[in-house]
Amino acid sequence: MKKYRIKINGMTCTGCEQHIDAALTSIGAKDIETSFQRGESVFELPNDVYVESVRQAIKQAKYQPEAIEEISLQDLKNFELDNKDDYDLLIIGSGGAAFSAAIKSIGYGAKVGMIEREIVGGTCVNNGCVPSKTLLRAGEINHFAKGNPFIGLQTSAGEVDLASLVDQKDELVTELRNQKYIDLIDEYGIDLIKGEAKFVDENTVEVNGEKLSAKRFLIATGASPSIPTISGLEVVDYLTSTTLLDLKKVPKRLTVIGSGYIGLELGQLFHNLGSEVTLLQRSEHLLKEYDPEISEAVERVLIEQGINLIKEVTYERVEQVGEIIKVNITVDGKKKVVETEHLLLATGRKPNTDSLNLSAAGVEVGKRNEILINDYARTSNEKIYAAGDVTLGPQFVYVAAYEGGVVADNAIGGLNKKLDLSVIPAVTFINPSIATVGLTEEQAKDQGYEVKTSVLSLDAVPRALVNRETTGVFKMVADAKTLKVLGVHVVSENAGDVIYAATLAVKFGLTVDDLKDSLAPYLTMAEGLRLAALTFDKDVSKLSCCAG
Ligand SMILES: Cc1cc2nc3c(=O)[nH]c(=O)nc-3n(C[C@H](O)[C@H](O)[C@H](O)COP(=O)(O)OP(=O)(O)OC[C@H]3O[C@@H](n4cnc5c(N)ncnc54)[C@H](O)[C@@H]3O)c2cc1C
Questions:
Q1: What pLDDT score was predicted for residue 14?
Q2: CA of residue 27 to ligand 1 center, whole Å
Q3: Rounded mean pLDDT of 369-382?
C-alpha cells in the first residue's frame, strides 16, 4: 500500500465527499479521508493499482482532480512497527495545544503521554481566558449599574465584594478545567505525568528523575508574564495577570504598565469594579499595530469612561513606600510620579523554554527564546514539534489548539500539513470590544495591494443608536481592483461576535458586493458589516431603515 493526497476541485458539501469516497473505493483505495472544506482526499492505494486511475475515477464522478502526491509512510511504519519507545507522542504541557494534539493523535491510534508541572489545563482555563472573561462580565454589569444611558431608569451599584466574585470565578474555572481537560485524560486514555520535563537527548525526556522515550515530542509549554527591566522593580510587590485575578479586595488605585490586550482588559475590569485606573505605555499610539481609526476609537472610549491613559512614558524607577508604590516616569521631558496601591505588569509574555534543556535535543530558539518552527510546526529537530504560545505566534487558545491538531496530523498521521495562519480573528474583550481580522490598511498597502477602505462611525449603526452607546467604528479594507474584503476592524459592543462573519468573508474571498447583497438582520451589531460595505459608495446616513 502507498499513501496519497489529491487536491480536488468542485466539492461543496459532505455529499460530494461521499461521491469521492465511493469513486476511490471502486478502484480499491482504503482508509479514505475526504474533506470538501480542504478540497482534498487522503487515501491508501494497493501497489498494483495504477495511480492515474485515481484521477479518472474522480473525473467520472464529475469532479476535477488536480495534482496527486505520495505521502511518505516512513513515519507511519515506524509508528506501527517499532514498540521500543515509551510513547508514540510525548507532550510537554497540558494546555490548549497539548490536548488538541493528544486527542487527535489518539484518534490515529497513538500512545500519548502528557507532562504538566503545574495545573492541568494550562493558561486559558486556569489564569487566562476563562477567569478574566467571567470577571470582565461582572465588571461590565457593575459599570452599567453605576450609570446607564437611559433616562428614567434608576440603577445603582453597591460596594463590590471581590472575594465572593473570585470564589465564584474559581468554581467556574474548576468546573471547566474538569470538563474540558481533566475528565478527558481518562476518557481518551492519555498518560498524565506530573512534574517538570527537560530533554536529556533528542529521544528522551526526564521528569522527576524518570527517563521517558518517544518517537515524536510536542513542546506545548506556553508562555508566562514577562517582567520588564525597570529599576527598583525587584523590591516592589507587583502583580501579574495571574495574581491580579486572585485579589480579594478592589484596590483604591491600580496602575498598569503596558496597554496591550491584557493590560486593557484587566485595566477596564478594575475600573468597572471601582478602582482608579491608570494605564501607562511607552509608545505614542495606543494599540499601535491596529488601524489608526481603531486605536483612536478605543482611546476615546477609555477617556469617556474615566480611565487615565499616559502615553510616551519613560520609566525611571519604581519604589515601595509602605503600602504605596511610586512609579517615577518621564513624559514629554517632564518628571512625574504616579502613586498607586497596586501595580500590574502587562508587558507581554515570554515563552516557557528555560527549563527544557533544548540544546540537548538540538531544538533551536529565536531571539526571545521562542521555539522556532517551520510551516509544518516542526522544530530544527525533525522528531520534535512545537505549538501554541511557546512559539510566540498569535497568542490565542484557538490558535494553540489548531496548531496542536496540525502537529498530530504531521507527527502521527504522516500528513505533512502546512500551518495556515493567514486569517486569524483577534478580540479584546473590553466594552466596547475590539475585534479585527485580516489586513490593516497599512499591511495591505505593504503587500502591494491597491487599497480601498470604508470607515463607518458607530453612530451610523442602528444597534448602537438603540443601545445609546455610539463610540466606536467599523473599518473595512478591500482590494480596489477585485473588491475582495482583505480586512475588517471593529470597535463596538459584541465586536467579537460580529467578527466571525468577517472572518469567513476574508478567508473565503468574499467581495464588498457579496456583503452588500447579503441580508443582515436589523438591529444586530453585525449589520454594521453590511453598512460598512455599502459605505464604499454610499452615504448610509441618507438611506432608510435597513439600508434599503
Ligand atoms: C489574562 C489572559 C487572558 C487571555 N484571554 C484569552 C482569550 O480570551 N481568548 C484566547 O483565545 N486566548 C486568551 N489568552 C491566551 C491563551 O490563554 C493562550 O494563548 C493559550 O492558553 C496558550 O495555550 P498553550 O497550549 O500554548 O499553553 P498553555 O495553556 O500556557 O499551557 C502550557 C502548560 O505547559 C506547562 N509547562 C511549562 N513548562 C513545562 C515543563 N518544563 N514541564 C512540564 N510542564 C510545563 C505549564 O505549566 C502550562 O500548564 C489569554 C491569556 C491571558 C494571560
A1: 78
A2: 46
A3: 97
C-alpha separations of 141 from 148, 224, 257, 369 in Å:
10, 29, 25, 40
- Which atom from ligand 1 is nearest to the alpha carbon of 120? 49
Residues classed as catalytic: 11, 13, 16, 63, 124, 129, 545-546
pLDDT of residue 33: 82
**Is residue 320's pLDDT more than 90?**
yes
Question: pLDDT averaged over the chain?
Answer: 94
Atom of ligand 1 nearest to the CA of 429: 8
pLDDT at position 78: 46
* For ligand 1, atom 50: residue with the closest CA: 128
Taking only the tens place, the pLDDT of each residue in 383-436 is: 999 999 999 999 999 999 999 999 999 999 999 899 999 999 999 999 999 999
* Ligand 1, atom 49: closest residue by C-alpha: 122
Could you tell me the sign of the dihedral formed by the alpha carbons of 512, 517, 521, 523, in that order? positive
What angle is formed at CA 521 by the lines to CA 520 and CA 526, rounded to 5 degrees?
A: 65
129 CA distance to ligand 1 middle (Å): 9
Nearest residue by C-alpha to atom 17 in ligand 1: 124
pLDDT category, 42, cuts 50, 70, 90?
Answer: confident
* Three-class DSSP labels, 374-443: CCCCECCCCCEEECHHHHCCCCCHHHHHHHHHHHHHHHHCCCCCCCCCCCCCEEECCCCEEEEEECCHHH
Helices 129-146 and 162-177: crossing angle in degrees, nearest 10, is: 140
Binned at pLDDT 50, 70 and 90, residue 545 comes out as confident
CA gap 470, 458 in Å, rounded: 5
Closest residue by Cα to atom 51, ligand 1, is 128
Task: Read off φ and ψ for residue 482, nearest 5 degrees.
Answer: -100, -10
Q: How many CB atoms lie within 10 A of CB 303?
A: 12
From the list 528, 514, 547, the residue with the least C-alpha distance to 457 is 528
Alpha-carbon distance 330 to 314, whole Å?
Answer: 5
- Name the DSSP class of 22: H
Distance 290 CA to ligand 1 centre (A): 24
CA of 127 to the centre of ligand 1 (A): 8
**pLDDT exceeds cutoff 50 at 27:** yes
Query: What residues have CB less than 8 Å from 448, skipping those under 6 apart?
Result: none
Residue environment code for 393-420, b if the CB has 16+ CB neighbours within 10 A, otherwise e: bebbbebbbbbbbbbbbbbbbbbebebe
Cα-to-centroid distance, 347 and ligand 1 (Å): 16
Query: Are residues 377 and 409 in contact, defined by beta-carbon separation less than 8 angstroms?
Result: no
Q: Residues enclosing ligand 1, CB less than 6 A?
A: 92-98, 115-118, 122-124, 128-129, 132-133, 196-197, 220-222, 241, 262, 352, 355-356, 388-390, 395-398, 400
Helix (H) or strand (E) holding 98: helix 96-107
**Shortest-distance atom of ligand 1 to CA 398:** 11
